[in-house]
Amino acid sequence: MKPCASVPVSVGVHELAFLAGGPGRVVDTTIVGPRVREVLCVARDGRLTAPARTGEGPIEDTILALVPAGSGADLTEVRLAAAVDPAILAVRDRLVAAGLMRRAPRPFGRRAAMVTPAGERCLGRRAGNGAGSTGRRRARPT
Asked: Out of the domains of life, which is the source (predicted)?
């Protein structure tokens, strides 16, 4: 994790993924690690199987726990279930506490949290484009 310019919090892969695409992007990003280590297998049809049951951290553990031994699980189902898991919601909560996101009035709506201008700048700087545009709805300045 590296600190983002003018933001008093370290921003890691999970935080960047949440800023860029919400909880589903965190799941997609997290799947890469276990996939590379062959702890999680992804079929062409989106079916996940997990030969191992433990990951490298709470988010990986959450995803692996959602994949039943033997039968596996559909990626879409795993993304939906993981999106409301406390481990992934903790990423959102850290971003809100750091001022990089703001909670929306409807916590389970399409936009349960919005990227603030500080979050846009952080994401833009980390993406290397300097523009900070993610295409996501921005929170109004306070």
From this structure: Bacteria
